[in-house]
């Protein structure tokens, strides 16, 4: 990769270090320096396949989308806390830090004293930035625990909301399954056939929460392919597996993988190719499931002809694949994306059953690699020493929501819902506090989310840029970008621990989340408890000590903090590639049972069956999709992860904006669908359904299945007329179109990946993109609270 240089957008950009200093990000380790007033970023010299997302940094650092000073929404200043539909439509008033923090401190005190800490939603979901100390979610949780007496939290993630609830019932520990299982090393060496349902897209596996020093996935697939391993790629999008895998592409209808896997098992059973010994010894519930597959319980055999009509894959292709899987070291991969949809639990469960029917679970390079390729730290070895980690304190508030139920919670205080076998009640939330996330990017049905955010008394957001979430807040507190502060970077599946040096001074009056919380804690009488009397540098030394001590105890080189800080990164020891719980279980099923109710792989789960949820029965089942194409919305929209940025982060950076078309996000559609609508490559199109509409540029390609359109997430929501109930997003945020429902009553996970839409060419006057322009700001002096 070439080095990137970009002129800072403002004269105030500092030209400090002229020597490359180490830093890291979710998209990889890099070094940065200033040269002739320009910031240069350079990836790790040992990284075989760097992620170009780091190229967003230079242009983003001093971009006008950054927030320069604390702001309070005019309506909140004038009328005080309370529900307000003007959130997201209002002007802002700049305040001094002291004035803003005094106001916010008083509001936090009011909410705590009048309504209790259980009225504060501090779930604050989001990826924020790499760095073990400045991790915004850890900071906000620590602050709310220590200074407010707790908060209503969120559980699970938008990434894996369905699988993380399902897996403990059927396979055991979720973290073990995804982080200590089949590795890329094993694939390169042992796998003979890999079937990737939903693919293993490099754009996803090139990102890791925390840091990553080497991107190895492309090379591992190329090595496996060169050795003779066959890759089979089941997805509506060809780009979901890299060319290096040399894969057979089976283009299937989105959301139908469970039916395809059922038919594979049906073929195996009908032809006597399933591994009865494995099923008898290591699983429970096969006989119940087998009756379902053969159609003995519902009269419908789940054979290849049945699946062909559902999946759009020919029956011959299905039976041929089942036969190829038999007798080979076979690995079944199911991507996170398949479970980010209605009934998302089913393909995850069915993938495990298919791997079990093949008798491959627990073998090197074989079995079930759930979510392999979804993120860079899956399929790797774990570190053998603990990472520096900031304590979040104790949260005494028991209430929580599954993370993607936020709008439901705000719209239905006291309402009930089902989750993991229990009936739960939504709390009554008065204050929402967010740092390091962008719900107006990540949540489904943004127009509904706007109504939900209008319900509460006060919304507080720490942000580095004017995201739609910041625009929907009452208090907007400008946070530093990672490049502007020092930290320690690393993740528990990457051996490189990185001293992260600051390479720029803070933008405007931006402050570290830690500094903001320390000053707020002071106003709540908890400064000492929050800071423990430490400066940032002292915290870094303190957190590093845990890792250093563990290294010393293993008789390994354990440099002092000063030596670590002066270096380019410390290589940590890693655990052996031992296959984790599934290998141990295979080797010794009685001595090392799985942590499931039966100690075995649960093909039928008594526990889940006892919940009696129609949308998640006791074994994997084909459930007719609720959201299916129809006359008014005939196309299936795949709203997947973007390639040129992480989620919505630094959408205003050069690498991200460079990939847009006439300033809009780019959708992809099949030539036949385009011709039928009079759409040509490079047109601007309008995507719409009953929930909303957005504009996008369009590329026409046969690398996508007919009847499917793809638009990635992450373009900042940009409503042309914010006063409207469901305004047109002129920039291309697909979450104005997605449906805000849970995967099922079991997990209530995010279903943002798939929805249905119609599309037309947009011939009107093209509205300008305003997503990156700061909102209207009242002039100083117009408010009694204005900055002095
Ligand atoms: P990001 O854009 O990463 O998205 O949702 P998430 O909210 O994590 O948001 C992080 C925000 O933190 C950014 O706005 C960034 O500027 C800010 N930030 C970065 N560093 C700091 C810092 O140090 N301090 C503060 N205060 N702020 C900081 C991601 C979520 O989206 C996820 S994980 C998934 S998997 C989902 N995927 C889909 C999907 O597949 N399809 C749809 N339709 N929707 C999805 N949404 C989900």
Automatic annotation (TrEMBL):
The keyword DNA-binding does not apply. Keywords: Metal-binding, Molybdenum, Oxidoreductase, Periplasm. Residues 23-62 form the Molybdopterin oxidoreductase N-terminal domain. Coiled coil: none annotated. GO terms for molecular function: electron transfer activity; molybdenum ion binding; molybdopterin cofactor binding; oxidoreductase activity; transferase activity. Residues 635-749 form the Molybdopterin dinucleotide-binding domain. GO terms for biological process: anaerobic respiration. GO terms for cellular component: outer membrane-bounded periplasmic space. Its cofactor is Mo-bis(molybdopterin guanine dinucleotide). Residues 66-523 form the Molybdopterin oxidoreductase domain. The keyword Oxidoreductase applies. Belongs to the prokaryotic molybdopterin-containing oxidoreductase family. This is Asp-tRNA(Asn)/Glu-tRNA(Gln) amidotransferase GatCAB subunit C. It comes from Afipia massiliensis.
């Amino acid at each position: 990769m070439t080095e990137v240089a970009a002129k800072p957008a403002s004269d105030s950009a500092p030209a400090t270090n002229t020597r490359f200093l180490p830093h890291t990000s979710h998209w990889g380790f890099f070094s940065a320096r200033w040269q002739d007033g320009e910031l240069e970023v350079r990836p790790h010299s040992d990284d075989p396949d760097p992620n170009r997302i780091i190229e967003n940094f230079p242009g983003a650092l001093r971009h006008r989308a950054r927030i320069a000073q604390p702001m309070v929404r005019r309506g909140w200043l004038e009328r005080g806390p309370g529900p307000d539909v003007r959130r997201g439509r209002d002007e802002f008033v700049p305040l001094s830090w002291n004035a803003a923090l005094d106001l916010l401190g008083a509001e936090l005190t009011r909410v705590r004293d009048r309504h209790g800490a259980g009225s504060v939603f501090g779930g604050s979901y989001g990826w924020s930035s790499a760095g073990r100390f400045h991790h915004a979610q850890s900071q906000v949780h620590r602050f709310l625990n220590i200074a407010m007496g707790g908060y209503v939290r969120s559980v699970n993630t938008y990434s894996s909301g369905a699988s993380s609830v399902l897996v403990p019932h059927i396979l055991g520990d979720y973290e073990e399954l995804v982080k200590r299982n089949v590795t890329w090393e094993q694939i390169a060496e042992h796998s003979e056939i890999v079937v990737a349902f939903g693919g293993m897209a490099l754009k996803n596996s090139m990102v890791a929460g925390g840091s990553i020093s080497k991107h190895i996935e492309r090379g591992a697939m190329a090595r496996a392919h060169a050795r003779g391993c066959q890759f089979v790629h089941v997805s509506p999008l060809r780009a979901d597996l890299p060319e290096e895998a040399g894969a057979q592409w089976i283009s299937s209808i989105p959301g139908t993988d469970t039916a395809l896997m059922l038919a594979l098992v049906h073929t195996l059973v009908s032809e006597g190719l399933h591994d009865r010994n494995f099923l008898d010894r290591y699983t429970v519930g096969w006989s119940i499931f087998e009756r379902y597959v053969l159609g003995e319980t519902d009269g419908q055999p789940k054979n290849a002809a049945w699946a062909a009509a559902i999946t759009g894959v020919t029956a011959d292709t299905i039976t041929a694949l089942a036969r190829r899987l038999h007798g080979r070291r076979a690995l079944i991969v199911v991507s996170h994306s398949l479970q980010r949809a209605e009934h998302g639990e089913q393909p995850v469960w069915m993938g495990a059953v298919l791997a079990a029917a093949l008798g491959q679970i627990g073998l090197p390079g074989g079995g079930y690699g759930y979510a392999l390729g979804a993120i860079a730290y899956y399929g790797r070895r774990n570190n053998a020493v603990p990472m520096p980690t900031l304590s979040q304190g104790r949260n005494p508030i028991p209430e929580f929501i599954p993370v993607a139920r936020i709008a439901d919670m705000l719209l239905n205080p006291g309402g009930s819902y089902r989750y993991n076998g229990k009936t739960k009640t939504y709390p009554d939330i008065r204050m929402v506090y967010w740092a390091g996330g962008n719900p107006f990017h990540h949540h489904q049905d943004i127009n509904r989310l706007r109504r939900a955010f209008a319900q509460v008394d006060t919304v507080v957001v720490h942000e580095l840029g004017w995201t739609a979430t910041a625009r929907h807040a009452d208090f907007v507190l400008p946070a530093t970008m990672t490049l502007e502060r020092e930290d320690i970077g690393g993740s528990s599946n990457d051996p490189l621990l990185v001293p992260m040096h600051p390479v720029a001074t803070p933008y405007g009056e931006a402050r570290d989340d830690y500094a903001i919380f320390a000053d707020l804690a002071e106003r709540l009488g908890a400064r000492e408890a929050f800071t423990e009397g430490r400066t940032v540098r002292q915290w870094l030394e303190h957190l590093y000590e845990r890792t250093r001590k563990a290294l010393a105890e293993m008789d390994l080189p354990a440099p002092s903090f000063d030596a670590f800080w002066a270096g380019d990164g410390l290589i940590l020891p890693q655990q052996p590639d031992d296959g984790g719980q599934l290998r141990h279980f295979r080797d010794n099923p009685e001595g090392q049972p799985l942590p499931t109710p039966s100690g075995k792989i649960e093909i039928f789960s008594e526990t889940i069956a006892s919940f009696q949820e129609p949308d998640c029965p006791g074994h994997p089942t084909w459930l007719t999709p609720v959201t299916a194409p129809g006359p008014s919305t005939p196309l299936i929209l795949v709203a997947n992860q973007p390639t040129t940025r992480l989620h919505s982060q630094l959408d205003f950076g050069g690498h991200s904006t460079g990939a847009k078309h006439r300033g809009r996000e780019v959708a992809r559609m099949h030539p036949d669908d385009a011709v039928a609508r009079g759409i040509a490559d490079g047109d601007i199109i309008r995507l719409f359904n009953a929930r909303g509409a957005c504009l996008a540029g369009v590329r026409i390609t046969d690398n996508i299945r007919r009847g499917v359109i793809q638009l990635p997430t992450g373009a900042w929501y940009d409503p042309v007329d914010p006063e409207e109930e469901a305004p047109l997003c002129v920039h291309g945020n697909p979450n104005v179109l997605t449906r805000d429902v849970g995967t099922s009553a079991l997990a209530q996970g995010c279903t943002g990946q798939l929805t249905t839409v119609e599309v037309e060419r947009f011939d009107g006057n093209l509205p300008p993109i305003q997503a990156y322009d700061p909102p209207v700001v009242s002039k100083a002096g117009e408010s009694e609270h204005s900055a002095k």
